[in-house]
Design goal:
This protein is an all-beta fold. The protein is built from no helices and 20 strands. An 8-stranded antiparallel sheet has the order 9-8-7-19-18-17-16-15, with no helix packed on it. A hairpin with a 6-residue loop joins β5 and β6. The chain is globular and about 45 Å long. The chain starts with a strand and ends in an 18-residue tail after the last strand. The relative contact order is 0.18.
Length: 293
């Protein structure tokens, strides 16, 4: 008997597994699929991307979040909210002691009411002692340390001491030294998709278009759940809502008030996350290059 399974999204740090079969009843019991006659094979440590059919291999218990379209956020614990920001400005998405990610908001001209898209994404990582490597995903491609774009199927692994010289297939010789550990690994999965991996994060960037406008969707996985990052998305790793969603005077549970700028989900206001440029850290909740979290 053949059984099929469908793997759902990460919700509140746990993998939600749903199973189905056309010829037998299958029940979900503590994360495994069972039937009266057999047990199907289940791939447990995989999350489906919300913006593509890609499956991203991440450790069990990892929290994953997403930012898609104009822009809709799914937090690292499953929160759903929007942060439209302001067009032609940079905002911080994730800020951690050795990892940061900013996005450039651009006016979505196909919609009214100020809707925006993330037209550029900038990432910086640190191996200690300052910024070690940078990634810029602009309107057309993705570049590491301002070097040439990667070809499809290539992978680059870098240490904090890697020289800025690549051949689109292998890392520089200093990166492959047995005495050095990989700080940053970047893979070009397809023409429109890249994986950025550090010891604590996995980011999948998807290059999309709405009509003739390019933009980026992102899937972000936090591998180290002891981290306490900040940023419009990062803060949801250890989220404390800044609204009261308890019972009202009449004893009824009230749905928290939400708007298009993260109200009810983010600390402060969206304006508190604006930075001066792609690698800007000049916002009040910055954690990049600031000691331990």
């Amino acid at each position: 008997m053949t059984h099929t399974y469908v793997l759902g999204e990460c919700l509140r740090g746990q993998y939600k597994l749903e199973c189905g079969s056309s010829d037998a009843e299958i029940k979900v019991i503590t994360g495994s699929c069972t039937s009266s006659s057999s047990t199907p094979t289940i791939q447990t440590n995989v999350c489906h991307s919300l913006s593509s059919n890609t499956r991203v291999n991440v450790p069990a218990g990892t929290c994953s979040g997403h930012v898609i379209e104009d822009p809709h956020f799914v937090g690292l614990q499953g929160e759903r909210y929007d942060v439209m920001g302001e067009p032609e400005k940079w905002f911080n998405i994730v800020s951690d002691k050795d990892f940061m990610m900013n996005a450039f908001y651009h006016q979505n001209t196909n919609h009214l009411r100020g809707r925006t898209i993330m037209q550029q994404v900038a990432i910086a990582v640190s191996g200690g002692g300052g910024m070690s490597h940078t990634i810029l995903a602009n309107t057309t491609d993705l570049y590491i340390d301002n070097n040439e774009a990667m070809v499809v199927g290539s992978k680059i692994s870098l240490t904090s001491s890697s020289v800025d010289k690549y051949n689109n297939n292998q890392t520089s010789s200093s990166s492959s030294s047995s005495s050095s550990s990989t700080l940053l690994a970047v893979s070009r999965i397809s023409k429109v998709q890249w994986e950025i991996r550090t010891s604590s994060y996995v980011v999948i960037l998807h290059h999309q278009h709405v009509h003739d406008q390019p933009y980026w969707d992102m899937d972000v996985s936090l591998l180290d759940k002891t981290r306490t990052p900040h940023g419009l998305l990062g803060q949801t790793a250890h989220h404390v809502h800044n609204h009261d969603d308890g019972a009202g005077d009449d004893g009824e549970r009230r749905r928290p008030l939400k708007g298009k700028q993260g109200q009810g989900e983010i600390e402060g206001t969206y304006k508190d996350y604006e930075v001066v440029g792609p690698y800007g850290v000049d916002f009040i909740f910055n954690k990049f290059l600031i000691g331990s979290n």
